[in-house]
Amino acid sequence: MKSAFRNAVALRTLPHYHFINPHFHSLPRFSVAAVSSPPSSLVSPSKPETFRFRRRSSPLRVRYSSMTGGETDAPASMEKQFEDFRVKLDEAGSLRERIRAVVNEIESITRLMHASLLHVHQSRPLSEVLEKPKAQVDGLKELYGRLAEVLCECPGEYYRFHNDWRSETQTVVSLLAFMHWLETGKLLMHTEAEEKLGMNQAEFALDIEDYLIGLCFLSNEMPRYVVNQVLAGNYDCPRKVLRFLTDLHAAFRMLNLRNDFLRKKFDSLKYDLKRVEEVYYDMKIRHLANGDSAEDNGTQGQS
Questions:
Q1: Are 206 and 197 in contact (CB under 8 A)?
Q2: Cα–Cα distance between 229 and 286 in angstroms, integer?
Q3: Which superkingdom, per the lineage (predicted)?
């Protein structure tokens, strides 16, 4: 009797499920006898059945919120470390600004020296050309002394700030070497350049690469100088410059240069030597070059 009543109730609820679920026939079939008595809400036709799903919270989210909900401030050790970094960076920035102030004055003097030395291509008297540049050498020595005083505040960090005055120093060396060659016809040695600039201290010396690159800048000026001297009637100048550049090129060949800026400048020295050789060759075939037995007196043949 009880089983018959349960079967009658199950059959009564089947049309209602079929109405609200069009895919009822696709659902898996089950035995009518196994269906239990449904609740009163399902039996009533005036109250359609609604299914609600409650979203469960992710265990990872709960765990993350419990981890981050407590400590929000950074550890004291981290703050102290970055505070030390801030102080050191501020000190380095202030020191670099002082260095750049001195370097700007050095650059200003080198522009004046270079502008005065350009008159050598106009065949002016050598003493007149060198008068103004030589007067600026003492000013350069004073500025490099100030630069050494600034660097004394950070001993052992010469190469940390070296790039701030490197290019200016290379230009200064090239100008000093050109002036020295115009006067003597010889190469300005490294120790002589250090003495002129006051950079002969243990903590503040003239970098060897800066000196070598300055000599390469010197060779870049030689082909133009040779051509202008020939036009001015100084036919012995190509031979003197050719001998000087040949010796300088042979000296550079002793060095094991890497693929860096110095190696590129050395390649330019080779091209400068080739251009001077072409000028000297033209002089020889026109029988305008003097004999190799003539004395090498620098540029005293200028008018």
A1: yes
A2: 16
A3: Eukaryota
Q: Which amino acid is at 104?
A: N
Task: Phi first, then psi: give them for residue 200, nearest 5 degrees.
Answer: -100, 25
Which tokens sit at 14? 């089947």
Do the Cβ atoms of 238 and 290 come closer than 8 Å? no
pLDDT in tens, 148-176: 999 888 888 888 889 999 999 999 999 99
- pTM reported for the whole predicted model: 0.70
Tokens 């990872």 locate to 60
Q: What six digits make up the tokens of 85?
A: 């970094």
**Of 236, 211, 224, 213, residue with least CA distance to 272:** 224
Sorted by sequence, the CB contacts under 8 Å of residue 222 that are 6+ apart come out as 241, 244, 245, 272, 276
Q: Average per-residue pLDDT in the chain?
A: 79
Tokens of 96: 């670099």
**Rounded Cα gap, residues 136 and 156, in angstroms:** 30
Domains 92-206 and 207-303 share a fold: yes
- What average pLDDT does range 236-260 have in this prediction? 92
Token pair belonging to 218? 């010197």
* 216 close to 265: Cβ distance less than 8 angstroms: yes
In this structure, the chain runs to a length of: 303
Annotation: CATH topology of 92-206? Methane Monooxygenase Hydroxylase; Chain G, domain 1 (1.20.58)
Dihedrals phi, psi of 244, to nearest 5 degrees: -65, -50
Q: For the domain 207-303, what is the CATH code?
A: 1.20.58.200
Q: Check whether 8 has a pLDDT greater than 60.
A: no
Better-scored residue on pLDDT, 212 or 73? 212
